[in-house]
Amino acid sequence: MPSFSRHARLPLDDRNGHPRLARQRGLPQLLAARLPFFYGWVVLACLCCAGFARQGGATATFSVFVEPLTREFGWSRTAISGAASLGGVLAALLSPLIGPLLDRHGSRAALCLAVLGTGIAALLLSLTQSLMLFYLLFCIARLNWASPFELGIYSALNNWFVARRPLANSIATVAQMAGLVAMPLIAQLAMRGHGWRAGWIAIGVTVLAVGFVPVWLLMVRRPEDLGLLPVEHIETTFSRRQAVRTSAFWLLLGYTVLVYPVQAGVSLHQAANLIEHGIAPTMAASIVSLFSLMSGVASAMCGLMPRALPIRYPMALGGVFLTIGCVAMIGIASTLQGAVAAALFGLGIGAMLTLLPIAWADYFGRANYGAIRGLALSAQVLAQAAGPLLSGALHDWTGGYRDSLECFAALSFLSILAALAARRPRIAPA
User: pTM to 2 decimals?
Assistant: First the structure.
């Protein structure tokens, strides 16, 4: 049963007795009146396209460029990792400002600009000749990945779906994992015949072709903008001020700060780590795609979980898979071992990426999701920025990735404890 009715309409205006008008005009309003199903599924399809395109700026995609950039320009792993980290810092500064704007105006404009910015930046990265230009362009792509895409996709999803929120979030996350499977392979195949510059061109073209048109034409802020009413309203609504006064907010934030350095730090250097263990570059790219594929499997499984199950338990299980995956990556001795480690790590990442947006919406409601998540996202992207920098610095210092993987395993273990302690608040503080 969908969370919103296609037939229920907004009530009469209390002040003048006239029916309220839907705020959205044009093609979405025409489709919503004629489709035999809930318009939220159209919105979900748009968000899947945006999520696929988002992965042009992902660390897993960037990881296939690390070794050729190092080889051609002699840049250190620390210097290369710094671009991803700086993009995260910029996103942290913008996220608290973007969130409230999304609550008021919706995700359409933010996602369209993010797609355009990422696609154009990727195309221009093919012209890179200096570290400064590389930083400028990749920071744009990384900023978009970490803030406008993250807030825009999940703010729209959680506004359109309540009862089917896990299913909708899992579908959107699977689409993003499909992008993570496809983007490294697209880049690697283009690079085989024409070098790393062709890889960036292939990424940029893919981002623009998949992501822009559906979002521009069909996105709608929330059901009420089409005159639709919720059939059910099962959530307590928190303001941002009320949310930060709960222990649940800080425990979810703690979980976030623990797992996101692991996600970014391992993802960015995953291909390079495999190559250093004697695995061929093409096979390393395939293993990175396997990691993304298993993330999609975990996301799909999260969509099927019963709503009565407290979300903190599957979040803790995701932390278990991250811990085991990091430990397994330390001593890779064969292609099979690398694939198993990537698969385990991917299961943890898929669970984390799917469940965290659901937890924020379930715990604090949909009305102020952007404002609340935007505040938390600042800490998230700063933590995420620290992961690649830690991996690169420890690699340059020690000559390998063992120390950074041990650190990430410890953080993953602590995330299990934070998840188990994060109980859902029942009443908003006065």
Answer: 0.77
The yes-or-no verdict on residue 6 having pLDDT over 80 is no
Are the C-beta atoms of 323 and 273 separated by less than 8 Å?
A: no
* In contact, 57 and 118? CB cutoff 8 Å: yes
Q: What's the pLDDT at 429?
A: 58
DSSP label at residue 149? I
SS3 1: coil
Lowest mean pLDDT among 92-106, 196-210, 250-264: 92-106
What is the distance between the alpha carbons of residues 238 and 294, in angstroms, rounded to a whole number?
Answer: 34
* Residues with Cβ within 8 Å of residue 37, at least 6 apart in sequence: 6
Confidence of residue 28 (pLDDT cuts 50, 70, 90): confident
Higher pLDDT, 160 or 24: 160
Residue 246 is classified by DSSP as: S
Quickly count: other Cβ atoms within 10 Å of residue 152's Cβ: 29
Report how far residue 338's alpha carbon sits from residue 340's, in angstroms, rounded to the nearest whole number: 6
DSSP assigned state of 104: H
Residues 6+ apart with CB under 8 A from 92: 146, 147, 377, 378, 379, 380, 381, 382, 385
State how far the Cα of 88 lies from the Cα of 282, in Å rounded to an integer: 28
SS3 content of the chain, % helix, strand, coil (to 5): 75, 5, 20
Question: What's the N-to-C CA distance of the chain in angstroms?
Answer: 33
Q: CA 319, CA 311: separation in Å to the nearest integer? A: 13
What tokens were used for 364? 């604090």
Alpha carbon distances (Å) from 59 to 3, 96, 150, 420: 34, 23, 14, 28
